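Reviewers of the previous submission asked for a worked example of the structure-prediction workflow described in the proposal, so we include one complete record here. The input consisted solely of the amino acid sequence. No template or homolog information was supplied to the procedure at any stage.
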Amino acid sequence: MKELAVVLVSGGVDSCVTAGIANKDYELVFLHINYGQRTEQKELDSFNKIADFYRVKQRLVCDFKWLHEIGGSSLTDLGMEVPVEQTHGSAPTTYVPFRNANLLGAGVSWAEVIGAKKIFIGVVAQDAPGYPDTSPEFIQTFNELIKLGTKPDTHIEVFAPIIDMQKYEVVKLGAKLNVPFRLTWSCYKNNERACGECESCKRRQNAFELAEINDLVPYENAKC
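From that input alone, the workflow returned the following structure tokens.
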């Protein structure tokens, strides 16, 4: 019997490819967090479709509505504009304060209960200049925190298998693994048809273009 692994699945490209990687060696259980983001409905739909694709029976969806109530991010505060240009060197308004720590905390709690020893998260260090909770240092430090904050006989480790890859390399790897890109969602703004204008849509479009792979997700504005 394969060892259990918790995979944090947002519904996006990175988490989908990470699930494809984990699927090779582990029995998957999927965790998804609703936190009041603009595209919560679409992301949850993508999560369930990806889980169906990998035949994941055990899945957990948690509501972290307080991240919406805290605000401070254009993903959760409708009064803030979602940026159309990437920010370099500083956190963009789409940064959700300390989100990945909260997501990983939920993953660790669940893993400790069900006996999973691995947690997979699809963070990419390419985003680290703007998103500090996607850096290798953050993952390394969080693993040290797990050792201090769990039972002595608990041995859980967070894996970030694509953290050192460029976005287009992630797409290329996903294609080799035959992951269902058509089921994923990257847009920060829309739930029906991807805007093609937000920084996440642009990163996705650029990655697929560089990887020379056709992106089957339709956009309102295909050329930005």
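The CA atoms of residues 70 and 76 lie 9 Å apart. We consider this example representative of the routine output the project will generate in years two and three.
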